[in-house]
# Entry
Amino acid sequence: MAIRVRKQVEFSFYEKSYLPEVARGVFVTLSHFFHNLFGRRATRPLQTLRYPYERRVYPQRFRGQHRLLAREDGSPRCVACYMCATACPAYCIHIVAAESPDPKIEKYPAAFEIDMLRCIYCGFCVEACPEDAIRMDTGIHTPAFLRREDAVVGRVDLMSLSGQAGTPPAFGAQNYREKKPAGA
Amino acid sequence: MFLVVSTLIKLVVFALVFALGLAAILTWMERRQSAYSQDRLGPTRAHFFKLFGRPFVLFGLLHIVADALKMFFKEPFIPKDADRGIFRVAPLIGFCTSLVILALVPFGPDLVTERWGVIPLQVARIDAGLLLVLAVGSLGVYGVALAGWASNNRFALLGGMRASAQSVSYEIALGLTIVGVLIAYGSTELSAIVNAQRGLVHGFLPNWGIFIQPFAAVLFFVAATAETKRAPFDLPEGESEIIGYFLEYSSMGFGMFMLGEFIEIVVLSCVFVTLFLGGWQLPYLIGDTSSSFLFGSLFGVNNSVAHALDGMLVFGIKVFFMCAFQLQVRWTLPRFRYDQLMRLGWKTLLPLALANIFATALLTWWDPTLKILGHVGVAMILMFVLVVVAGPRRVPAESHGH
Amino acid sequence: MPSVNIDGTSVEFKPGDSILKTAKKAGIEIPYYCWHPRLSVAANCRICLVELEKSPKLVPACQTPCGDGMVVRTKSDKVKETQKAVHEFLLINHPIDCPICDQAGECKLQNYYMKLQLDQGPMQDEKAHKPRLEELGPYVLYNGERCVMCTRCVRFMEEIAKDRQLGVFERGDHVRIGVFPNKPLDNPYSLNVVDVCPVGALTSSVFRFKQRVWFLSRSPSICPGCAKGCNVKVDHRSGIVYRLLPRENDAVNQSWLCDEGRLTYARANDGRLTTAAMLGPQGVDSAAANAALDRAIQLLKPVADSKQGMAAVLSLHATCEEAYLFGRFVKEVCGVDEVALLAYADGVADRFLRQADKNPNRAGVTRVLCDLGLKTTDVASLCNKATSAVKALLVLGHEGAELERLAAWAAKLEIVVQVAAARSPLTAKAHVTLPATNWVQADGTWQNGALRLQRLVPAFAPQDAARPAHEWLADLANGLGVAFALSSPATIRAEIERRLPSFAAAKISTVPAEGYSPAS
Ligand code: SF4
Ligand code: SF4
Ligand code: SF4
Ligand code: SF4
Ligand code: FES
# Structure
């Protein structure tokens, strides 16, 4: 990242006298005010989205709730290497590694938990994973949790999610503890 | 006896119904107006029931009710080591001083009745009215400073300190800007000032403070905004850095501060309207004669009551627009830095106010009919408009992407 | 002294020293896998090849002794090229599955790859496959694919453990390290091979998969396993100890550790007490630290007033500082003249590291108590006493074999106060339990069987209500009306030095990191 040096802006006397610019500023905000007051919103629509009634369709690269991918036989792809936990800036991934029954695999996560309340959805875990075992492509917005423990999502739940199927799940189907989201 | 009753009625009608009601509506206006100014929607959620399948939100007005309910039912929390007595009393101080100022403002023409004689539409007609406005107004900062101090919280204390420093600095400028008006109209009694603004200069220009004393009007507005701690002078709040003197307040204690802020807006508008916008008069139509223009022609009654109603209506409308203007200023300007604030108060406003006094005194002495003052005022306004419209514009710097 | 010129600087050497050793001393780095400072030279990995003037071929630095006037180049292009090539060879059959390898983070192969090779290597063919998970013994697992055949492990068993349990089997692509039929790697020093293995071929079944090493913090300490007092490094994270590694100390344990001592790491975690507890009508329940302290003071008050009827038990895991304060407390406050020592029974000893005495600080504790004029006895004889004469029992520590017996005896007593770092059978019987720090968290001094004074450095802060035992004792004394102005281990050490004859010359307050044996 290049470092950008901001030049100190030199103000002219006219600008420093402040009032004319204030007046202009008030005109600008007022023009927006009247524009919106008299309902000419078609030309410049309001930015407000009436969430939960209206929802934005998240883009394909939206980083939503994590999921763990499975191998063909249904066992987790994850090899419990802790790369994601190492990369995670929020220290919210908790893994317990165990000897895998498959000698070719060596390790597997006996427990794999993500604390969704600590997660900052940076996606570093996805970048770090050497096995492509974790993805954030479910399109699920973090649910609201009623209890702290609910926010710690375990391996089984993480593996039960699937990739984004277009639109996000409907409002109300958010808390997968009670109800699996659509497409699960 | 009659005096007491009439005063009480005036108090209730003006201070409680009008001012408090307007303040309550301002809490909604602030949100709605700011939202529209920023291309947002504003409050739309509070509702009690649905009408035709949609929540009945009444333009978001129900938020006022929701706010009030919330404030009343929250726990009034007092921090452990706070000074409990002062902590409780502090919110009331600012609130009360604002209401006292309202008592001095004339909100309509005198009511001339046969039975009771002349009833001034002003709660307290005091000869030193304007001085009292200044005196009581500066007491308001006690509420803020004490709240900050009693909270036993360093950030709250900082907020209180900022507020007192700011109000001390701007009080002087505030007082001096008014001197110009005093010179021009020759009275410190507010209804006398209003009456002095009757009539036209040159036959077309209303004899209003804003035309006679445009410079003082601007200075007054700036200094008074700083006194009321509104943006861009809201450093005592400074929510992004210190959160402010009411940091430890919850429930109605905080509610009092918030309502107090809006009351102050109303008070400032009232005083400004009285001093510079001709009070309850409307040139050509209301006040020049004692006949009623609006209610008189509407209902065919042409007596003093109709006349007074006209005046009150005009006064209310003027105050309303001044309030709206203050809100708009808040949503236009970012907050000052503290050093900028102090520099503006001491090095800009104070000398300018002094200069204004001398110029006004000179011109009034030259021509006591205020005609020359009017010339100069109008010239200044025109120049300002010219500068705003045709002044240089900085080409916006090339914007950088993310 | 003769000198050799390495990379342009002239370095003096001891006759007989290899180039690698001489360079290492001079701070010039030459990579090595198979060489180990405490093992014989095998010179089979060839990563240490350096250029020697007047020699037609490169020579292995680990094997070539220095000669006067030799000119050695370790950074020349030729050397670099060779190192890269050698490394390429080492990785030909290496799986490079670092993410799932326990050695990752402390692997020589990783470090040298980043330093010397840093490319893909031209190898296209399928790598040779070998057994990936072979149990060599109870604690050691072997992954043949990751082995670089440096034979350090074999040499360790042969030369240090003096027990040929490992050998090199097969040749070429099939070469592997292994044990002999029906002879598992069960030597009591077996886990050292995991340390010497430069890569992730040998892993400890105890530590395996528990943590990635880069998460661990490390601090120096002493092994509590026996009276040898081997120097260890404590690897811990978030207040949990994950393993002990040997810390080099020529005077004590060189770079080795016995398996038994290594596994004492679990003692630092098991049942650790973090809250005070009091015996109430519903049994033992946790309590606020202040309340427990007040209760203990209230219970001990009659004993302190009458100065009789008190029995004192002190664990041999206590530091000298704790022992000193404990001794003063029971003697001056409670009028005790005999302290029972809570100890582990004697165990196996050998001629290398392990001592029969399985208590780390018997020497220190007994000398401190003796100097204070206190008699010592053992728990068994204390428990043989009739309980009628004894009113109260004060126990410091929880480490020892006779805890069950002590607990059964203590159950009959009116007052039992315990200061301990972890739960023990006694905890269920104690009227008040005050949570103390264990040896990993303590700041103190231990004296090993050879009277060497060694310092314990706190690895991490005490959790919740736990406090160092000396603080509890000082508070108890304070509450009972005797003020000990001893707020920190340092002030206690200063007083020990002043007042105890055995330590007068021993300078307990200035024990260096590697320990110190008093002259006597
Ligand atoms: S998205 Fe970022 S914060 Fe969340 S688990 Fe992954 S690495 Fe951690
Ligand atoms: S980085 Fe991937 S494979 Fe490694 S532990 Fe995380 S999810 Fe599992
Ligand atoms: S031995 Fe070293 S290089 Fe090989 S897989 Fe393990 S960490 Fe990686
Ligand atoms: S197991 Fe380790 S120490 Fe033994 S030969 Fe292989 S790499 Fe060397
Ligand atoms: S270190 Fe010299 S050959 Fe291995």
Remarks:
- Chain C has a mean pLDDT of 92.
- Residues 39 and 160 of chain C are 8 Å apart (CA to CA).
